[in-house]
Amino acid sequence: MDTVSWNSMLKAYAMHGQGKEALQLFSRMDAQPDGATFVALLSACSHAGMVEEGAKIFETMSNNHGIVPQLDHYACMVDILGRAGRISKAKELINKMPIEPDSVVWSALLGGCRKHGETKFAKLATVKLKELDPNNSLGYVLMSNIFCTDGRFNEARLIKMEMEGKTVRKEPGLSWIEVGNQVHEFASGGQYLALHDIEDEHKEEQLYYHSEKLALIMKNIQICVDCHNFMKLASELVDMEIVVRYSNRFHHFKVKVCSYNDYW
After folding, report:
1. What is the DSSP letter of 32?
2. Mind listing the domains of the chain with CATH numbers?
3. Where are the alpha helices (DSSP H) in 28-173?
4. Where does the signal sequence lie (predicted)?
């Protein structure tokens, strides 16, 4: 097989959260790896929580294979550290980058901040995202969610007002399921931002209408923790494996167990 074929297999493992299998396959690779090879490997490590393995790959790609890390490699490494809660280390890596970080790098940092409730670096990442991609709602929404999780609803409301003032629109949460030859689309029944300062019983009620619970198959944005747990319970209830694709990942739910071990 050529490098492209090996890379395709590595990417497939990464998309299904099989980090160890990706590394095992790489050890048998008999073609010359390229930059895309290491993007696939780093991506596989990121969603499997394999921090040390990812750091080793990032180091050896230049030392052993002569491949200079590019923006996508740095973004993957920031994502690995951020998901694991090593936000300060991720920020240090960004500071040491020999090239100017792009919106993907800052998005990776912001995603880690969102997962672990880190406000300080989240604000910085949001500012950078606004500078690089002012019409993208991602920075606004994630920062708003961080504030809401922390109970800072007034600050979250200010972000929403800023979005409205700048006519920045949030991409609606959509899910799809294919039955036979027909695709059915479901839209989220939530409000403009995912989290907001409403009474607990209303917040719980709106979670009933997240589109994942209606479609159970394909998602255009990141799944929330509540919907993730719902899929686990549903897999046991219907006694079958449920596969959900969101962003560029496939999650497999079977007998209340997630293929990513609840790490994503």
Report:
1. -
2. 3-165 (1.25.40.10), 174-258 (no CATH)
3. 35-48, 51-63, 71-83, 87-96, 103-116, 119-132, 138-149, 153-165
4. none
